[in-house]
Specification:
alpha+beta; Alpha-Beta Plaits; SH3 type barrels; 5-stranded antiparallel beta sheet; 3 helices; about 15% helix; elongated
Length: about 180
């Protein structure tokens, strides 16, 4: 089993059945001893502030209504389990074999978060190590680890210019 790697797949569900499908899939995986094959199931949501009249409240919205993400090792057995969950209409992908999401899609869609270790803070000097401004040096002006974002002020053409980067595109300058 070591040569199988779990990947993220997208399952299409009936509208409103996303949470039920996710729960049933996890329960079925546990009951059939497939927890090492069906690793994780997610229904990505976001908190939105809604205003009705003069009242505001925070509401959880599904980012992708009608879809559930499942991290699993694809085999005939796991395919069968997923396809036979009540409320599931099938995998997203051409033909009968589902296509896994790429790592970039997984992070961009918010299914998984990349964990980036940050060795710098606001006010520190950093070197840009990726992108069009590679090898430029600047000072960290703003940092948001939750949003994977850093603003660095670099000197270009005699002007101080703020540049927005992903956390992994900058590294602390070594003294």
């Amino acid at each position: 089993m070591a040569d199988y790697e779990a990947k993220w797949y997208v399952i299409h569900t009936y509208s409103g059945y996303e949470n039920k499908v996710a729960t049933d899939l996890l329960t079925t995986a546990e009951n059939r001893n497939l927890k090492d094959m069906i690793i994780d199931v997610k229904v990505p949501t976001e908190i939105v502030t809604e205003t009705v009249g003069e009242k505001t409240k925070e509401v959880e919205h599904k980012i992708y209504p009608g879809y559930v993400f499942v991290k699993m090792v694809y085999t005939d057995e796991t395919w069968y389990v997923v396809r036979n969950i009540r409320g599931c209409t099938g995998f997203v992908g051409p033909g009968s074999k589902p296509v896994p999401l790429t790592d970039a899609e997984v992070y961009r869609m918010g299914v998984e978060q990349k964990v980036v270790k940050v060795s710098y803070a606001v006010g520190d000097s950093v070197r840009i190590i990726d992108g069009p401004l590679e090898d430029f040096v600047g000072v960290v002006e703003e940092l948001d680890t939750d949003k994977n974002y850093v603003r660095v002020v670099v000197s270009m053409f005699g002007r101080e210019t703020p540049v927005e980067l992903e956390l992994s595109q900058a590294e602390a300058l070594e003294d």
